[in-house]
Amino acid sequence: MNIFQHLHTHPEISWKETETTAYITELLKKEGIFVSLFDDCTGLIAEIGNGKPIVAVRADIDALWQEVDGIFQANHSCGHDAHMSIVIGAILQLKNQVTNGTVRFIFQPAEETGSGALKMVEKGIVDDVDYLFGIHLRPIEELPFGKVTPSVHHGAVTFLTGKIIGDDAHGARPHQGTNAIDIISVINEQLKLVHFSPFEPYSVKMTYVEAGGQSLNIIPGTAKFGLDVRAQKNSVLLDMQKIIEKKIHQLSHLFEVKIETEWLDFTPGAEVDTEAEELLRQSILDYGGREMLADPLITSGSDDFHFYTIKRPKIKASMMGIGADLKPGLHHPKMSFDPRAIQIGADILASAVLNALKK
Prior knowledge:
Layout: H1 2-9, H2 18-30, E1 34-37, E2 44-50, E3 54-60, E4 64-68, E5 71-75, H3 80-94, E6 101-108, H4 116-122, E7 131-139, E8 148-149, E9 152-153, E10 156-165, E11 169-170, H5 180-191, E12 202-211, E13 218-219, E14 223-231, H6 234-255, E15 258-267, H7 274-292, E16 297-298, H8 307-311, E17 316-326, H9 340-358
Helix pairs in contact: 1-3, 3-9, 5-6, 7-9
């Protein structure tokens, strides 16, 4: 718990996890674990053993930037402090048990921006990996304490920023311009007409609007907006993007204004390998029996963990979901959970790694 308390009370935001990287590095080196750092970013790699197979474990290390009790600050409200603690606990268990193969622990920066996993892929960290395990605490409405799932099926997500570019007009002369707020309203209504099969989970909604100023007698010709776009399947998300682009293009012609758009921060949906999932399932059964084992979890959230398998399809990967009575919810500034979940996660993860090495 001392490790968790330190990590919990020293949160750092994406790409600025300098002290977190230093703390984990020093801790693991004292335990005799081989550690390597990066010269152009935060995060670290720790390894035990040598040769094949290579089993990798990923822990995300960044915190969110959010308002807590009226003050904006870094805050571990997504459980990454617990994820690091679980993986460190697994390392301490495994350091004298690995007799064949290599176990690579990826302490990855910038999960919250959706770019950390891509950086690790770019550096070749997973090019030779056979199995990859991830972990994530789950909110209480998904899994209560004492339940663990061998796979979390995240959805795909991306964001769109848009800007309507036109001329302002006097409030008494609306015919001299096009009200950007009217265009925003029509875009929002058109989004409600994006339809797919009811068997496909998906959503698109406007989450940001900026238009006008302090002068209430000016009709704004320019406005900014933002969309949150999600689907359980990567293919559905791609189709949604095409439909949204088409609708915005048509509205640009209809209103005779320029509308600039840009897609940001695509995070893919999960591609779960059945063999990796089975290794985690068996480890959960061995540890806590059928009472602990939960079904695979489908969630609308997202995680950049799945870039590893999208970019390197040969990797056999699955993310374990750990019930921890986490509430009120992920990303809530006052999120809390049952700390006993840390030991459970570390024990099951260590078992799954050893079973994968036997493969």
